[in-house]
Design brief:
25% strand, 15 strands, eight-stranded antiparallel sheet, mainly beta, five-stranded antiparallel sheet, binds magnesium ion, elongated, 283 residues, 1 helix, Jelly Rolls
């Protein structure tokens, strides 16, 4: 075949079309490939304090924690204080003997009045700043009224009470109802479930801080979700809780056990786990 100028032009046009198609394919491939982002920066300004830059690539990444299957299950870095099988983490407050509360069907129950050693139980371990998850159920059979109905309590450092009570259609003073900072602050709302139903407290507790001379540097603070509903947002305590008295910080207390109240009402607990935190540093 003779190459006429027409055929040469056609061949050149085909080549051009072919190469532009290849360019397009390349562009398309580049467009579908995820853009690579920097993992951090080394040239950004320093944050206040001068330790880390904004988006600092050298800043340690947070530790990996595997969450529980649902919000009730302990995450991988929690200390399980009650898993439904035994109360080995607990002892009697008054004499350190083994806890005498009833372990049954996966829960821990306040024993009937006049049985066992009697009294509050506390953890063998001591804690400062913590995140706590605890579930409770007040007695299904409703007996008593006001503070005599499903009364118990969770005490941080063995001293700062978060009230447990059957406050479902049960009239009692506001700073003594379920989820109250007992004797001081009522919860923001009453999020109680009916008697016998399992309820949850998810808490962040900040322990008070003191200097070497025993002067208070920082009060205790608590944040509480009751059945997933916010009832306290970083609420300060007046001090260790008392009955018919105004609390105050009259003793140096930075660490202590978690304590559960025996108020002679057969209140039940389960799924108790705690994560140790440290709010003294904020790097
Ligand atoms: Mg109580």
């Amino acid at each position: 075949m003779r190459l006429t100028p027409f055929l040469i032009l056609c061949a050149l046009a085909n080549l051009t079309i072919g190469s532009s198609r290849a360019d397009e394919a390349k562009k398309k491939a580049a467009a579908t490939k995820p853009k690579q982002h920097p993992t951090g920066y080394t040239d950004t300004p320093y944050l206040p304090g001068g330790k880390w830059r904004v988006h600092d690539d050298a800043r340690p990444r947070p530790e990996v924690v595997t969450p529980g299957k649902n919000a009730s299950n302990a995450p991988s870095d929690a200390i399980v204080l009650f898993d439904g099988k035994n109360a080995d983490e607990w002892i009697m407050e008054k004499d350190g003997s083994p806890g005498d509360w009833i372990v049954k069907d996966g829960y821990l129950e306040v024993p009937p009045k006049g049985t066992g050693v009697g009294g509050y139980i506390r953890t063998k371990r001591e804690f400062g700043d913590v995140q706590l998850h605890i579930e409770f159920a007040t007695p299904e059979k409703v007996e008593g009224n006001s503070q005599g109905r499903g009364n118990s309590g969770v005490f941080f450092l063995g001293a700062h009470e978060l009230q447990v009570l059957d406050s479902y259609e049960n009239e009692s003073y506001a700073d003594g109802q379920a989820s109250a900072i007992y004797g001081y602050k009522p919860p923001l709302v009453n999020a109680c479930r009916p008697p016998g139903e399992w309820q949850t407290y998810d808490v962040v507790f900040e322990a008070p801080k003191w200097d070497a001379e025993g002067n208070l540097l920082k009060k205790a603070y608590i944040t509480v979700l009751h059945n997933g509903v916010l009832t306290h947002h970083r609420q300060p305590y007046l001090g260790p809780s008392g009955h018919k008295s105004v609390a105050n910080y009259n003793r140096v207390l930075e660490r202590g056990p978690l304590k559960l109240q025996n108020h002679s009402n057969p209140t039940r607990f389960r799924n108790i786990w705690i994560r140790e935190l440290d709010f003294t540093t904020n790097d």
